[in-house]
Amino acid sequence: MTCQFFRALRGLVFLVLAAAASVAVAGVSLVAPAHAQEPALRGGTLRVAILTDMTNFDPQQFSAVNFHLIKNLYDSLIEYTPEGEAVPSLATAWQIAPDNQSVRVTLRDDVSFASGAKLTSADVAATLAKAADPGRGKNVYATMSIVTNWTTPDDRTIVIHFKAPAPQRQITDLLQFTMPIEAAGIASVETVPAGTGAYMLDSRAVGQGLRLRANPHYWRQGQPVTEAVDFTIFSDDVSASAALESDAVDIIYGSSARSAVRLQDVGYQVLRGPGPLVQVFRINSTRAPFTNPSFRQAFNYLMDREGMLRVGYAGLGEVAALPWAPASPAFDATYADEFAYNLDKAKELLAASGLTPAEQSDWKMLVGGDDEPTIVVSQILQSALAEVGIDIELDILQGAEYTEALLAGDFDATFGAVGNVQKFPSRVATNSIYRVVNNPVLKDPHPDYVAAIERVNTTSDPAEVKAAYDNLNRVLVTDAFAIPTNSYDTGLIVASPRVGGLALDIDNLFVARMAGFQ
């Protein structure tokens, strides 16, 4: 497409949703969200459209394809509000030691697993043991890196010890990420769920969907509201939207931004959560011309973030010059203004790089051809580059071919989303481009970035925490090996106006237990 066309695209105005985020949290002393207490909500079967099949029932397999199930089959020790405040769930209390080297967790005494067995500290201990095992811990294994061991003084208490003083938010992230699995069910949890959640598995048809039924042992009074949840897999967003409009389903979980905008405009509800992804321009700084710091830094100003958000994501999200969601303690909105789209500043840095025009154009942009928004934002950047005299090709790959190149770091530069951006800041290092060890792209990550992550991980004094976050943020824009552009919603919910009590948790996982019909 031509530069003129993309300059026109930047002028397009799309409808921006103002749907408020909501999070499912509850505990002994907490009041549930007002909509969840409305007596008008009634039960029945909630019909949910999804776009991909699940992987397995292990809550430690924290993959997006399982997000519709995890918080319906399992509960966490604690939860977060949309603002990132830790609140009780299966744990009634948690006491962090004065030296920040342990946390004492007290469990509720009225919780049972779907099997009917009572939750005890032994189940939590068995869950932690699985998480700490590199062969079994899956996505939770990295979070367990701060843990040295644990003890269970009694059936309701577990004390978790850390290798060194750990920051408070890193500790609460661990507790929020810990979803107890019944000890007797750990060996078979991939095929048979074993949680304390509001629902339990009723049936599954591989590639078609599954059905959950209400857990008769559930500990939250009056929940779940509905007796069953039916998940049906649709081949694409268009067919899922058609099913919602024909009243064949009540909810779409994982809708696209553009479909959500259209459907809200004709009367459907849209729910956005506090746990978005952030689109990031990933730079392989081991390859020329990106070995040049000034050349990389120019990309901070080459991103037409407003245009990318409007055109690629229908305005759903926020512009971002840092890889954080607002719930992250490292979030700093001023960076979006400081590094706003500015071709003059970009030209200054390009000139300071000392690279010739030919050298500046000697690379390709890898593009995932299966994701329309990624194609659009790649083309917008290509247009901006052309305006400063850099002409590059888009190397568009499909499916597994693109994924293999992305995960292996076999690219010059590419757009790719990152997650864990609303949690403790060093959790961003779970994403390949941000890893401080075993980084498939950078191999040996930038030393000042590694040091900044280490400083965040080891700073527990509240008086020094903000300085550690500020240092990390400045290093990110200076090293400039990953340039964020905007946040966008994962797990976006579009629902019939007949449905009430919908919620997404801090990770944008679907929470059905408060949902019912009006």
Record field, number of beta strands: 22
Can you tell me the residue ranges where pLDDT is under 50 for at least 5 consecutive residues? 1-37
Main β-sheet description = 7 strands, mixed
Number of domains: 3
Regarding CATH, which class of the largest domain? Answer: Alpha Beta
Order of strands, widest sheet:
8-9-10-1-11-18-12
**Rg for CA atoms:** 23 Å
Question: What is the overall pLDDT average?
Answer: 91
Per DSSP, what share of the residues sits in E-state strands of 2 or more residues?
15-25%
Contiguous helical run count: 16
CATH topology of the largest domain: Dipeptide-binding Protein, domain 3
State the secondary-structure class: alpha+beta
State the fourth-level CATH superfamily of the largest domain: Dipeptide-binding Protein, Domain 3
Q: Distance between termini? A: 48 Å
Given the C-alpha coordinates, what overall shape results?
globular
- CATH architecture grouping of the largest domain: Roll
Helix content range: 25-40%
